[in-house]
Design brief:
Keywords: Membrane, Signal, Transmembrane, Transmembrane helix. GO terms for molecular function: cyclic-guanylate-specific phosphodiesterase activity. It comes from Hungatella effluvii. This is Periplasmic sensor diguanylate cyclase/phosphodiesterase. The chain is α/β, with parallel strands linked by helices. The chain contains twelve helices and nine strands. An eight-stranded mixed beta barrel has the order 1-2-4-5-6-7-8-9, surrounded by five helices. A hairpin with a 3-residue loop joins β2 and β3. The chain is globular and about 50 Å long. The termini are far apart. The structure holds ligand C2E and magnesium ion (3 copies). One magnesium ion (MG) binds next to loops. One magnesium ion binds next to loops.
């Protein structure tokens, strides 16, 4: 590696560090401009009923149309924005864009499905998320049940149990849907599942893949799915890529999936066409 190699490589390493710092500086400085220029765009990935193939919901995923760097995926800027404490602005901007889009669908009389949005854990530490999203939803007159708040398992694990349960309760009281995202990627115990008052449990792609490796693994995932369903949650399998995976999960009793096998995330127009009933 660069660190252990001879002198020249160390320079290269420093050069890379310097470049990374420059890019980060640039990104940080550009946030306000990027918002103003509407460079952040919501892509939509359908959630599908595996039995009927009907679209039962979707997730909004942020993309950054950077004027010089091109289309940036969340992994290349979300962690940095999170570190800088500015991801909350992007999340609310996305939520606003989603509400504006749902409003146009409602006005066109389309059969709108619930849209889920991702929220960084920073919202639960510093801001009044519920007031903020209620104001945005109400400004566009969007019924709250059409909006789903995705909170990751690790976010829930990182805030105190009291904070998490109050937050979920308040979201519920305001009529929003709640999804626990990336479940099985972190350290949640099964015991926590009963105390999480969520509507939807999204099984992380890595967890689903691992769960399909053999009969013993399958028993674990099967029982988790059953438990979640009995606790009143809808289970969504993330990252379904193959027909084989879909078949196994259907047999286990999972109804809803999100994955490349069905659809990739797509731009608003493409998703709107999927919602539009055939003439
Ligand atoms: P996530 O919330 O778990 O979203 C699912 C990710 O899995 C998306 O990646 C999606 O494109 C990808 N995916 C879906 N189906 C498949 C599949 O079959 N195979 C594979 N390999 N991947 C699949 P994406 O769009 O790159 O987003 C990555 C992560 O960035 C998201 O994971 C979420 O944690 C974060 N993110 C995205 N949008 C936002 C946002 O608006 N705010 C915040 N705070 N985070 C966001
Ligand atoms: Mg998500
Ligand atoms: Mg996820
Ligand atoms: Mg995930």
């Amino acid at each position: 590696s660069a660190k252990t190699a001879a002198g020249g490589s160390v320079v290269l390493y420093d050069e890379e560090m310097r470049k990374k710092a420059l890019i980060e500086q640039e990104l940080e400085g550009r946030l306000a401009v990027a918002m103003e220029q509407r460079e952040f765009e919501a892509y939509y990935q359908p959630k599908v009923d595996m039995n009927t193939r009907a679209i039962v919901g979707c997730e909004a995923l942020v993309r950054w149309n950077h004027p010089e760097l091109g289309l940036l995926m969340p992994n290349s800027f979300v962690p940095f924005f999170e570190k800088k404490g500015i991801i909350t602005d992007v999340d609310l901007y996305m939520f606003d864009q989603v509400c504006r889009t749902i409003r146009t669908w409602l006005d066109k009389g389309l059969p709108v499905v619930a849209v889920s949005c991702n929220f960084s854990q920073l919202h639960f530490e510093h801001t009044d998320l519920i007031k903020q999203i209620s104001e945005i939803a109400d400004r566009y007159q969007i019924p709250h049940h059409l909006l789903e708040v995705e909170i990751t398992e690790s976010t829930i694990a990182s805030v105190s149990e009291g904070v998490a349960s109050v937050l979920l309760m308040q979201l519920k009281q305001h009529g929003f849907q709640i999804a626990i995202d990336d479940f099985g990627s972190g350290y949640s115990s099964l015991g926590q599942l009963q105390s999480l008052r969520a509507d939807v449990l999204k099984l992380d792609r890595s967890f689903v893949c691992a769960g399909l490796q053999g009969p013993r693994e399958q028993i674990v995932i099967e029982n988790l799915v059953n438990m979640a369903v009995e606790l009143g949650m809808e289970v969504v399998c993330e990252g379904m890529e193959t027909e084989a995976q879909v078949n196994v999960l259907r047999e286990i009793g999972c109804r809803i999936a999100q994955g490349y096998y069905f659809y990739r995330p797509m731009q608003t127009d493409a998703f709107e066409r999927l919602l539009t009933p055939e003439a």
